[in-house]
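User: I'm putting together notes for a lab meeting next week and I want to include a structural view of one of the chains we've been expressing. I don't have a solved structure, so I'd like a prediction I can at least talk through. The sequence is below, exactly as it appears in our construct file.
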Amino acid sequence: MHEERCDVAVVGLGAMGAATLYQLARAGADVVGIDRFAPPHDQGSSHGDTRITRLAVGEGAAYIPLVRRSHAIWRELEAQSGEALFEQCGVLVMTSSEAPGRHHGADDFTAQTIELARRYGIDHEVLKASEIRARFAQFGPIRDDATGYFEPEGGFVRPERCIAAQLDAARQHGATVVTGVTVSSIESAGGGVRVKTADRTFVANKVVTCAGMWSAGLLGEPFSALLKVCRQKLFWFRLEAPSIFAEVSPTFILSDGPSETDICYGFPPIPGENSMKIASEQYTGLDSIDSLDRTVSQAEVAQMYRDHVLGNFAGVTPELVKASVCTYTVTPDYGFIIDDHPALANVTVVSACSGHGFKHSAGIGEAVAQRCLTGRSDVDLSAFSLNRFR
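Assistant: Thanks for the context. Below is the predicted structure for the 390-residue chain, given as C-alpha coordinates.
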Protein backbone atom coordinates (compact mmCIF):
# COMPACT_ATOMS: atom_id res chain seq x y z
CA MET A 1 0.00 0.00 0.00
CA HIS A 2 1.33 3.44 -0.93
CA GLU A 3 2.40 5.54 2.05
CA GLU A 4 1.57 9.26 2.06
CA ARG A 5 3.99 11.38 4.08
CA CYS A 6 3.47 14.59 6.04
CA ASP A 7 4.86 16.52 8.99
CA VAL A 8 1.80 16.06 11.20
CA ALA A 9 -1.41 14.04 10.93
CA VAL A 10 -4.47 15.10 12.95
CA VAL A 11 -6.96 12.31 13.62
CA GLY A 12 -10.49 13.59 14.26
CA LEU A 13 -11.67 16.98 13.01
CA GLY A 14 -14.25 18.02 15.58
CA ALA A 15 -13.69 20.98 17.91
CA MET A 16 -10.12 20.18 18.94
CA GLY A 17 -9.00 18.59 15.69
CA ALA A 18 -10.22 21.38 13.41
CA ALA A 19 -8.57 23.99 15.66
CA THR A 20 -5.28 22.07 15.78
CA LEU A 21 -5.25 21.48 12.02
CA TYR A 22 -5.83 25.18 11.35
CA GLN A 23 -3.08 26.30 13.70
CA LEU A 24 -0.57 23.77 12.33
CA ALA A 25 -1.31 24.79 8.74
CA ARG A 26 -1.15 28.46 9.67
CA ALA A 27 2.31 27.86 11.13
CA GLY A 28 3.46 26.36 7.84
CA ALA A 29 3.42 22.65 8.68
CA ASP A 30 2.68 20.03 6.01
CA VAL A 31 -0.40 18.65 7.74
CA VAL A 32 -3.15 16.14 6.99
CA GLY A 33 -6.48 15.99 8.84
CA ILE A 34 -8.53 12.78 8.85
CA ASP A 35 -12.13 12.24 9.95
CA ARG A 36 -14.53 9.31 9.65
CA PHE A 37 -17.37 11.70 8.74
CA ALA A 38 -17.54 15.05 6.93
CA PRO A 39 -17.17 17.73 9.60
CA PRO A 40 -18.92 19.70 10.83
CA HIS A 41 -21.29 16.80 11.57
CA ASP A 42 -23.76 15.66 14.23
CA GLN A 43 -22.25 12.28 15.10
CA GLY A 44 -19.99 13.30 18.00
CA SER A 45 -19.80 16.10 20.56
CA SER A 46 -19.42 19.28 18.51
CA HIS A 47 -22.87 20.15 17.22
CA GLY A 48 -26.15 21.65 18.39
CA ASP A 49 -25.98 25.22 17.01
CA THR A 50 -24.63 26.88 20.16
CA ARG A 51 -22.03 26.31 22.90
CA ILE A 52 -21.55 28.42 26.03
CA THR A 53 -18.35 30.36 26.50
CA ARG A 54 -17.24 32.11 29.72
CA LEU A 55 -13.96 33.41 31.08
CA ALA A 56 -14.46 32.48 34.75
CA VAL A 57 -14.45 28.73 34.31
CA GLY A 58 -15.72 27.15 37.54
CA GLU A 59 -13.98 23.91 36.61
CA GLY A 60 -10.60 25.45 37.48
CA ALA A 61 -8.06 28.22 36.92
CA ALA A 62 -6.01 26.22 34.40
CA TYR A 63 -8.72 26.75 31.78
CA ILE A 64 -8.84 30.54 31.94
CA PRO A 65 -5.83 31.27 29.65
CA LEU A 66 -7.23 28.88 27.05
CA VAL A 67 -10.66 30.49 26.90
CA ARG A 68 -9.15 34.00 26.85
CA ARG A 69 -7.07 33.04 23.84
CA SER A 70 -10.05 31.31 22.22
CA HIS A 71 -12.13 34.49 22.37
CA ALA A 72 -9.40 36.35 20.50
CA ILE A 73 -9.09 33.60 17.88
CA TRP A 74 -12.86 33.53 17.27
CA ARG A 75 -12.73 37.26 16.52
CA GLU A 76 -9.76 36.77 14.19
CA LEU A 77 -11.62 34.01 12.36
CA GLU A 78 -14.74 36.17 12.08
CA ALA A 79 -12.70 38.90 10.41
CA GLN A 80 -11.13 36.41 8.00
CA SER A 81 -14.25 34.42 7.14
CA GLY A 82 -17.06 36.95 7.40
CA GLU A 83 -19.00 34.42 9.52
CA ALA A 84 -20.64 35.30 12.85
CA LEU A 85 -19.01 32.85 15.28
CA PHE A 86 -19.07 34.43 18.76
CA GLU A 87 -22.15 36.12 20.27
CA GLN A 88 -21.07 38.14 23.31
CA CYS A 89 -24.47 38.28 25.03
CA GLY A 90 -23.15 37.58 28.54
CA VAL A 91 -23.46 34.49 30.70
CA LEU A 92 -25.42 34.03 33.93
CA VAL A 93 -24.37 31.26 36.35
CA MET A 94 -26.96 30.72 39.09
CA THR A 95 -27.69 28.57 42.11
CA SER A 96 -31.38 28.29 42.92
CA SER A 97 -31.65 25.45 45.44
CA GLU A 98 -31.41 24.75 49.17
CA ALA A 99 -27.90 23.37 48.81
CA PRO A 100 -25.00 24.50 46.57
CA GLY A 101 -24.77 22.74 43.23
CA ARG A 102 -21.86 20.41 42.49
CA HIS A 103 -20.66 20.42 38.89
CA HIS A 104 -17.62 19.05 37.04
CA GLY A 105 -15.80 18.41 40.32
CA ALA A 106 -16.56 21.79 41.96
CA ASP A 107 -18.51 21.45 45.22
CA ASP A 108 -20.17 24.87 44.85
CA PHE A 109 -19.97 25.71 41.16
CA THR A 110 -21.43 29.23 41.34
CA ALA A 111 -19.26 30.21 44.32
CA GLN A 112 -16.12 28.87 42.66
CA THR A 113 -16.95 30.77 39.48
CA ILE A 114 -17.28 34.01 41.49
CA GLU A 115 -14.03 33.35 43.37
CA LEU A 116 -12.08 32.76 40.15
CA ALA A 117 -13.51 35.91 38.56
CA ARG A 118 -12.38 37.94 41.55
CA ARG A 119 -8.94 36.33 41.62
CA TYR A 120 -8.26 36.85 37.91
CA GLY A 121 -9.84 40.26 37.44
CA ILE A 122 -12.67 39.10 35.19
CA ASP A 123 -15.43 41.71 34.80
CA HIS A 124 -18.56 40.44 36.55
CA GLU A 125 -21.49 41.19 38.84
CA VAL A 126 -22.87 39.12 41.72
CA LEU A 127 -26.66 39.36 41.60
CA LYS A 128 -29.43 38.66 44.09
CA ALA A 129 -32.63 36.95 42.96
CA SER A 130 -34.50 40.27 42.78
CA GLU A 131 -31.77 41.73 40.56
CA ILE A 132 -31.82 38.69 38.27
CA ARG A 133 -35.61 38.93 37.87
CA ALA A 134 -35.54 42.67 37.24
CA ARG A 135 -32.99 42.33 34.46
CA PHE A 136 -34.03 38.98 32.94
CA ALA A 137 -37.74 38.23 33.39
CA GLN A 138 -37.45 34.68 32.02
CA PHE A 139 -35.83 33.69 35.34
CA GLY A 140 -38.77 35.01 37.37
CA PRO A 141 -39.59 31.67 39.04
CA ILE A 142 -36.15 31.23 40.68
CA ARG A 143 -35.96 31.00 44.47
CA ASP A 144 -35.82 34.16 46.59
CA ASP A 145 -32.43 33.10 47.98
CA ALA A 146 -30.91 32.44 44.54
CA THR A 147 -27.44 33.78 43.77
CA GLY A 148 -26.21 34.74 40.32
CA TYR A 149 -22.90 35.51 38.65
CA PHE A 150 -23.15 37.64 35.51
CA GLU A 151 -20.18 37.91 33.15
CA PRO A 152 -20.68 40.37 30.27
CA GLU A 153 -17.76 39.01 28.21
CA GLY A 154 -19.33 35.53 28.03
CA GLY A 155 -21.97 34.30 25.63
CA PHE A 156 -22.00 31.57 23.02
CA VAL A 157 -20.13 30.33 19.97
CA ARG A 158 -21.59 28.55 16.94
CA PRO A 159 -19.81 25.16 16.84
CA GLU A 160 -20.60 24.05 13.30
CA ARG A 161 -19.61 27.44 11.91
CA CYS A 162 -16.40 27.51 13.98
CA ILE A 163 -15.33 24.08 12.76
CA ALA A 164 -16.14 24.90 9.14
CA ALA A 165 -14.28 28.23 9.32
CA GLN A 166 -11.16 26.59 10.74
CA LEU A 167 -11.18 23.76 8.21
CA ASP A 168 -11.62 26.25 5.36
CA ALA A 169 -8.75 28.35 6.71
CA ALA A 170 -6.60 25.25 7.15
CA ARG A 171 -7.16 24.33 3.50
CA GLN A 172 -6.27 27.87 2.43
CA HIS A 173 -2.98 27.45 4.29
CA GLY A 174 -2.28 24.20 2.44
CA ALA A 175 -3.66 21.52 4.74
CA THR A 176 -5.04 18.28 3.26
CA VAL A 177 -8.44 17.30 4.66
CA VAL A 178 -9.47 13.66 4.24
CA THR A 179 -13.08 12.86 5.20
CA GLY A 180 -15.25 9.76 5.19
CA VAL A 181 -12.22 7.66 6.21
CA THR A 182 -11.89 5.72 9.47
CA VAL A 183 -8.48 5.32 11.09
CA SER A 184 -8.02 1.68 12.05
CA SER A 185 -4.66 1.91 13.83
CA ILE A 186 -1.84 4.22 14.89
CA GLU A 187 1.65 2.73 15.18
CA SER A 188 5.06 4.18 16.01
CA ALA A 189 7.41 3.42 13.15
CA GLY A 190 11.10 4.26 12.80
CA GLY A 191 11.00 7.66 14.46
CA GLY A 192 7.65 8.51 12.89
CA VAL A 193 4.05 7.38 13.19
CA ARG A 194 2.03 5.26 10.77
CA VAL A 195 -1.71 6.02 10.56
CA LYS A 196 -3.67 3.29 8.79
CA THR A 197 -7.11 3.36 7.20
CA ALA A 198 -8.81 0.68 5.12
CA ASP A 199 -7.06 1.72 1.90
CA ARG A 200 -4.58 4.47 2.77
CA THR A 201 -1.55 4.78 5.02
CA PHE A 202 -0.15 8.08 6.24
CA VAL A 203 3.34 8.34 7.71
CA ALA A 204 3.86 11.46 9.82
CA ASN A 205 6.64 12.79 11.97
CA LYS A 206 4.00 13.42 14.63
CA VAL A 207 0.34 12.62 15.17
CA VAL A 208 -2.31 14.46 17.18
CA THR A 209 -5.39 12.41 18.05
CA CYS A 210 -8.63 14.27 18.77
CA ALA A 211 -10.94 11.30 18.32
CA GLY A 212 -13.50 12.08 21.03
CA MET A 213 -15.85 9.18 21.71
CA TRP A 214 -13.72 6.88 19.54
CA SER A 215 -10.49 7.61 21.47
CA ALA A 216 -10.60 4.67 23.88
CA GLY A 217 -10.93 2.07 21.12
CA LEU A 218 -8.25 3.70 18.99
CA LEU A 219 -5.66 4.44 21.67
CA GLY A 220 -5.88 1.44 24.03
CA GLU A 221 -4.60 1.62 27.59
CA PRO A 222 -4.70 3.68 29.72
CA PHE A 223 -7.36 5.56 27.77
CA SER A 224 -9.73 2.62 27.49
CA ALA A 225 -9.84 2.54 31.29
CA LEU A 226 -10.00 6.31 31.85
CA LEU A 227 -12.51 7.49 29.26
CA LYS A 228 -16.26 7.12 29.64
CA VAL A 229 -18.75 8.01 26.91
CA CYS A 230 -22.10 9.43 28.08
CA ARG A 231 -25.23 10.16 26.07
CA GLN A 232 -26.53 13.74 26.32
CA LYS A 233 -29.80 15.22 25.10
CA LEU A 234 -30.44 18.72 23.75
CA PHE A 235 -33.95 20.23 23.70
CA TRP A 236 -35.50 23.26 22.03
CA PHE A 237 -38.84 24.27 23.65
CA ARG A 238 -41.26 26.65 21.99
CA LEU A 239 -41.68 30.04 23.64
CA GLU A 240 -45.08 31.14 24.86
CA ALA A 241 -44.03 34.74 25.27
CA PRO A 242 -40.86 35.65 23.36
CA SER A 243 -41.21 39.24 24.53
CA ILE A 244 -40.37 38.17 28.08
CA PHE A 245 -36.77 37.73 26.98
CA ALA A 246 -34.73 40.94 27.00
CA GLU A 247 -33.37 42.11 23.65
CA VAL A 248 -29.96 40.94 24.82
CA SER A 249 -30.41 37.88 27.04
CA PRO A 250 -27.56 35.79 28.43
CA THR A 251 -26.65 32.18 28.12
CA PHE A 252 -27.13 30.50 31.48
CA ILE A 253 -26.07 27.68 33.78
CA LEU A 254 -28.55 26.90 36.56
CA SER A 255 -27.81 24.67 39.55
CA ASP A 256 -31.24 23.67 40.87
CA GLY A 257 -30.11 20.97 43.32
CA PRO A 258 -27.02 19.56 45.05
CA SER A 259 -25.97 16.72 42.74
CA GLU A 260 -24.06 16.58 39.44
CA THR A 261 -27.34 15.99 37.58
CA ASP A 262 -29.22 18.87 39.24
CA ILE A 263 -28.04 21.35 36.69
CA CYS A 264 -29.15 22.68 33.35
CA TYR A 265 -27.77 25.14 30.86
CA GLY A 266 -29.20 26.99 27.92
CA PHE A 267 -29.29 29.89 25.53
CA PRO A 268 -31.31 32.95 24.62
CA PRO A 269 -33.71 32.61 21.69
CA ILE A 270 -31.96 32.79 18.34
CA PRO A 271 -33.69 35.45 16.20
CA GLY A 272 -36.44 33.91 14.11
CA GLU A 273 -36.52 30.57 15.93
CA ASN A 274 -39.03 31.28 18.76
CA SER A 275 -37.53 28.57 20.95
CA MET A 276 -35.13 28.20 23.85
CA LYS A 277 -32.41 25.57 23.78
CA ILE A 278 -31.84 23.88 27.13
CA ALA A 279 -30.04 20.74 28.24
CA SER A 280 -28.94 18.91 31.36
CA GLU A 281 -26.06 16.49 31.90
CA GLN A 282 -25.80 12.88 33.00
CA TYR A 283 -22.78 10.67 33.52
CA THR A 284 -23.93 7.09 33.06
CA GLY A 285 -21.49 5.53 30.63
CA LEU A 286 -22.60 3.65 27.53
CA ASP A 287 -21.95 -0.09 27.49
CA SER A 288 -20.70 0.41 23.94
CA ILE A 289 -20.58 3.42 21.64
CA ASP A 290 -22.36 1.23 19.08
CA SER A 291 -25.36 1.18 21.44
CA LEU A 292 -25.82 4.97 21.35
CA ASP A 293 -29.50 5.85 20.83
CA ARG A 294 -29.61 9.03 18.76
CA THR A 295 -33.35 9.54 19.16
CA VAL A 296 -35.04 11.44 22.01
CA SER A 297 -38.22 9.89 23.38
CA GLN A 298 -41.39 11.71 24.44
CA ALA A 299 -40.75 10.48 27.98
CA GLU A 300 -37.34 12.15 27.95
CA VAL A 301 -38.88 15.38 26.67
CA ALA A 302 -41.50 15.35 29.44
CA GLN A 303 -38.89 14.58 32.10
CA MET A 304 -36.63 17.42 30.97
CA TYR A 305 -39.48 19.91 31.08
CA ARG A 306 -40.67 18.67 34.48
CA ASP A 307 -37.23 18.49 36.11
CA HIS A 308 -35.56 21.63 34.79
CA VAL A 309 -37.91 23.99 32.94
CA LEU A 310 -41.08 23.97 35.03
CA GLY A 311 -40.60 26.18 38.07
CA ASN A 312 -37.34 27.70 36.80
CA PHE A 313 -38.30 29.62 33.65
CA ALA A 314 -41.17 31.82 32.54
CA GLY A 315 -42.53 32.00 29.01
CA VAL A 316 -41.36 28.53 27.92
CA THR A 317 -43.95 25.94 26.86
CA PRO A 318 -43.63 22.12 27.02
CA GLU A 319 -43.96 21.96 23.22
CA LEU A 320 -40.80 20.53 21.68
CA VAL A 321 -39.52 22.25 18.53
CA LYS A 322 -36.60 19.87 18.01
CA ALA A 323 -34.17 17.67 19.91
CA SER A 324 -30.73 16.22 19.35
CA VAL A 325 -28.30 13.77 20.95
CA CYS A 326 -24.58 14.27 21.46
CA THR A 327 -21.94 12.54 23.56
CA TYR A 328 -19.61 13.57 26.35
CA THR A 329 -16.37 11.65 26.66
CA VAL A 330 -15.15 12.29 30.20
CA THR A 331 -12.30 11.39 32.54
CA PRO A 332 -12.81 10.42 36.21
CA ASP A 333 -12.16 14.02 37.35
CA TYR A 334 -13.93 15.66 34.36
CA GLY A 335 -10.65 17.34 33.37
CA PHE A 336 -9.08 17.27 29.94
CA ILE A 337 -6.18 15.09 28.81
CA ILE A 338 -3.59 16.85 26.66
CA ASP A 339 -0.43 14.79 26.81
CA ASP A 340 1.88 12.36 25.04
CA HIS A 341 0.66 8.81 24.57
CA PRO A 342 2.66 6.76 27.10
CA ALA A 343 3.27 3.86 24.69
CA LEU A 344 3.28 5.49 21.24
CA ALA A 345 6.20 7.82 20.54
CA ASN A 346 5.41 11.13 18.82
CA VAL A 347 1.65 10.81 19.44
CA THR A 348 -0.15 13.60 21.31
CA VAL A 349 -3.57 12.81 22.77
CA VAL A 350 -6.16 15.58 23.05
CA SER A 351 -9.13 13.93 24.74
CA ALA A 352 -11.41 13.95 26.54
CA CYS A 353 -12.56 17.54 26.37
CA SER A 354 -16.32 17.08 26.57
CA GLY A 355 -18.67 18.89 28.90
CA HIS A 356 -17.12 22.31 28.64
CA GLY A 357 -14.53 21.86 25.92
CA PHE A 358 -15.74 23.82 22.93
CA LYS A 359 -15.13 27.21 24.56
CA HIS A 360 -11.45 26.30 24.91
CA SER A 361 -10.98 24.58 21.57
CA ALA A 362 -9.45 27.43 19.57
CA GLY A 363 -6.88 28.09 22.31
CA ILE A 364 -6.17 24.38 22.74
CA GLY A 365 -5.58 24.02 19.00
CA GLU A 366 -3.04 26.83 19.09
CA ALA A 367 -1.27 25.46 22.19
CA VAL A 368 -1.14 21.90 20.84
CA ALA A 369 0.22 23.12 17.49
CA GLN A 370 2.94 25.08 19.30
CA ARG A 371 3.79 22.06 21.44
CA CYS A 372 3.93 19.85 18.35
CA LEU A 373 6.21 22.14 16.38
CA THR A 374 8.45 23.64 19.08
CA GLY A 375 8.14 21.37 22.12
CA ARG A 376 6.45 24.03 24.25
CA SER A 377 3.29 26.16 24.27
CA ASP A 378 2.49 29.69 25.39
CA VAL A 379 -0.25 28.32 27.66
CA ASP A 380 0.74 25.92 30.45
CA LEU A 381 -0.89 22.54 29.71
CA SER A 382 0.58 20.65 32.68
CA ALA A 383 -2.78 20.53 34.50
CA PHE A 384 -4.03 18.22 31.73
CA SER A 385 -1.27 15.64 32.08
CA LEU A 386 -1.91 11.93 32.40
CA ASN A 387 0.27 11.90 35.52
CA ARG A 388 -2.63 12.96 37.72
CA PHE A 389 -4.25 9.55 37.23
CA ARG A 390 -1.20 7.51 38.24
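A couple of points you could mention at the meeting. The longest strand covers residues 316-330. Residues 3 and 201 are 5 Å apart (CA to CA).

User: Perfect, that's what I needed.
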